[in-house]
Design brief:
The complex is a heterodimer of chains A (114) and B (120).
Chain A: E1 4-7, E2 10-13, E3 19-25, E4 31-37, E5 43-51, E6 54-57, E7 64-66, E8 76-78, E9 87-95, E10 102-105, E11 109-113
Parallel strand pairs in A: 2-11
Antiparallel strand pairs in A: 1-3, 3-8, 4-5, 4-9, 5-6, 7-8, 9-10, 9-11
Chain B: E1 3-5, E2 10-14, E3 19-21, E4 24-26, E5 33-39, E6 46-52, E7 60-61, E8 64-69, E9 74-79, E10 88-97, E11 106-110, E12 114-119
Parallel strand pairs in B: 2-12
Antiparallel strand pairs in B: 1-4, 3-9, 5-6, 5-10, 7-8, 8-9, 10-11, 10-12
Classes of the chains: A mainly beta (114), B mainly beta (120).
Chain lengths: 114, 120
């Protein structure tokens, strides 16, 4: 298993540009999520999905869209990039229920918005 | 809302010594989970240890153990026999229920992290 993969590893955007951060997992996990990590901060939840076709907002959803057409993929779209979206983005997927739950993180995508 | 506080932005420990990283949290729930994650310079988030609130026994994983004080809402991480490879950012996290979607999962609520330096 490749686990959770993210592309690209690093991206530079200009203000106003749009782009999609890709996330895929090959573990057949129903639950996937996107976090962002800013300097001096822990991870904050952007959006999550509990299964194909079902998504919802997390703590900091503004400026981002998600969709979940398949179990494997959970892309994060930046509609019009802003410097405040400069951050490291982590995708995660979760297995198990309740007390057997284990969350797996991808390697992260570093985004710089100029 | 649940909050997680790590009061030590940086800590230093000598190789082979023991270090304790602090974490406190605020919650009104009675059943929850707590985690410690390690983030090395590669930025990969690695689960170190987890604690279930309903268990009184402190979790241990090899050189890593926790001191879980439920009444005090405290969850510290002890690293014994520190190694150079332990140098990293350490994040304390609380698992909260999201609740707005049916069959919703859980999100991790993170502290700001503690940077651990290990000196030879």
């Amino acid at each position: 298993n490749a686990g959770v993969t993210q592309t690209p590893k690093f991206q530079v955007l200009k203000t106003g540009q749009s782009m999609t951060l890709q996330c895929a997992q090959d573990m057949n996990h129903e639950y996937m999520s996107w976090y962002r990590q800013d300097p001096g901060m822990g991870l904050r939840l952007i959006h999550y999905s509990v299964g194909a076709g079902i998504t919802d907002q997390g703590e900091v959803p503004n400026g981002y869209n998600v969709s979940r057409s398949t179990t494997e993929d959970f892309p994060l779209r930046l509609l019009s990039a802003a410097p405040s979206q400069t951050s490291v983005y982590f995708c995660a997927s979760r297995t198990g229920q309740g007390r057997q739950e284990t969350q797996y993180f991808g390697p992260g995508t570093r985004l710089l918005v100029l | 809302a649940q909050t997680v506080t790590q009061s030590q932005p940086e800590m230093s420990v000598q190789e082979a010594e023991t270090v304790t990283l602090s974490c406190t949290y605020d919650t009104s729930e009675s059943d929850y989970y707590l985690f410690w994650y390690k983030q090395p310079p590669s930025r990969q988030m690695i689960l170190v240890i987890r604690q279930e609130a309903y268990k009184q026994q402190n979790a241990t994983e090899n050189r890593f153990s926790v001191n879980f004080q439920k009444a005090a809402k405290s969850f510290s991480l002890k690293i014994s026999d520190s190694q150079l490879g332990d140098a990293a950012m350490y994040f304390c996290a609380y698992r909260t229920r999201l609740g707005r979607v049916s069959n919703s999962g859980y999100a991790l609520n993170f502290g700001k992290g503690t940077s651990l330096l290990v000196t030879p």
